Structures are given as structure tokens and as C-alpha cells.
């Protein structure tokens, strides 16, 4: 059964993700190149390096300083975070940082997997498409342990790292 936008939005609301924007797309099945994983790892690193402009959203993920630095330096993805494709590569999406967003693995990424799988075989499907690079559900946006000081501290770290890359 093809979903309407209203059905898709209700499914997300049932998952406590009613603030997740969606787009309608027609899946274009494509084959993967044999070196797709190498390209994926490169795109993930580029995506992680680009997150210095997403400090506000990152502060809601309650990362400690080592996790934060590992993430924005492109070295290590913190536990319980996932990089997702806006349009999955098997549906015609590109392996490109512009086609990626990040969210918590549990429960958001797992719920989004279910959301997409339930639409398998439909002519048109609805895909998550958050406005920002980092999706934080309104239900989980509680902020870091340090309140505003956490935002300031992480902003300073990101600015220092970003300046180091420009030289």
C-alpha cells in the first residue's frame, strides 16, 4: 500500500519523531560499485569534518570532550550515533556528504530503518529529510550536562579546530 504524506507523518509521530521533515521520492534502484565502501568512508569523514557548523545541535547529544573532538576531527564516530543517507544509495542517492545527516542510533536511526522498510515495494516512498545535518528529536533535546557552558566550550573547541584546518 502506497502511503500518503499523512500516513507517513503519523508513522513518524507514533515513533516520537513528528518533527522529522519528509520528502516523497521514487526509488531508482541502482547497483553499487565494487569500491562503494571506500567512497562511503571518505564521505563519512568529510561529513564529520563539516559538523563544525552544527555545534548547537551537537550539544544536545551529550558528548564528552573526547567524543566531540573525535567526531568533528573526522577520527571517530561516538557510540550511539549514526550517519544516514537522505536518499539511500540503493534508491538512487549519491555517496556524498550533502546526502547525509546524523542522528542517534537508538531509537531514531532504528526507527527510520523501520519507517523505510515498511514502504518497501511502493512506487513512491517517503524519506526522512531533516533541515540540518544533525537531527535531534524534540523529545530528546535536553541539552548537555553543562547547560550554556557546554555550548560555549564546544563552540570554542570547534572554532580552534576549524582555524587549525585553514592553515
Lay out the secondary structure:
Elements lengths: L4 H10 L7 E4 L10 H14 L5 H5 L5 H8 L8 E5 L14 E5 H13 L7 E4 L19 H19 L1
Antiparallel strand pairs: 1-4, 2-3
Helix pairs in contact: 4-6
Question: What do you see in this structure?
Answer:
The radius of gyration is 17 Å and the shape is globular. The model is unreliable at 142-149 (pLDDT under 50). Helix content is 41%, strand content 11%. The strands form 2 sheets. A two-stranded antiparallel ribbon has the order 1-4. A two-stranded antiparallel ribbon has the order 2-3. The chain has helices at residues 5-14, 36-49, 55-59, 65-72, 105-117, 148-166, and strands spanning 22-25, 81-85, 100-104, 125-128. The chain has one domain (5-166). Helix 4 (65-72) runs parallel beside helix 6 (148-166). The termini are far apart. By secondary structure, the chain is α+β, with helices and mostly antiparallel strands.
